[in-house]
């Protein structure tokens, strides 16, 4: 997929948890499978993560009713523990995530290349919904 005129989209949130917990929950497969969905009718039944430059990751995202599933994955291009992760998705688009510690809170910002298949608003809403799911899961557990 090509990016839509190299448009960058950004989603962000502040999580009620310290940076060490946020980092662990963001990267550990046993946590990824608990939060990586945009709505309650979706799930992430599988996740693998090799968090290092050149390492690969993938997450299977699936409708709970079994009607649709897809793998989301890529390769890491930058990893700075507790600060930044960058990767290239399997379709060539780039993503950067920054983590900013604010005491017992952590600010997470994701910036990603848009794609051409869906509207910018839909993409931003979908990524924000997943980030909101992360915030809820991490803050409550």
From TrEMBL:
Domain of life: Bacteria
Domain Activator of Hsp90 ATPase homologue 1/2-like C-terminal, residue spans: 16-138
InterPro entries: ASHA1/2-like_C, START-like_dom_sf
Protein family: Belongs to the AHA1 family.
Protein name per Swiss-Prot or TrEMBL: Polyketide cyclase
């Amino acid at each position: 997929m090509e990016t839509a005129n190299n448009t960058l989209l950004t989603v962000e949130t502040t999580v009620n948890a310290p940076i060490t917990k946020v980092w662990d929950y963001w990267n550990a497969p046993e946590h990824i499978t608990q939060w990586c969905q945009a709505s309650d009718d979706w799930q992430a039944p599988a996740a693998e993560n090799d968090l290092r430059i050149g390492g690969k990751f993938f997450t299977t995202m699936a409708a709970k009713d079994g009607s649709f599933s897809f793998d989301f994955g890529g390769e890491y291009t930058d990893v700075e523990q507790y600060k930044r992760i960058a990767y290239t998705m399997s379709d060539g688009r780039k993503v950067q995530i920054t983590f900013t510690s604010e005491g017992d809170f952590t600010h997470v910002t994701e910036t990603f290349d848009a794609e051409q298949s869906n509207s910018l608003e839909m993409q931003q809403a979908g990524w924000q919904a997943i980030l909101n799911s992360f915030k809820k899961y991490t803050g409550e557990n």
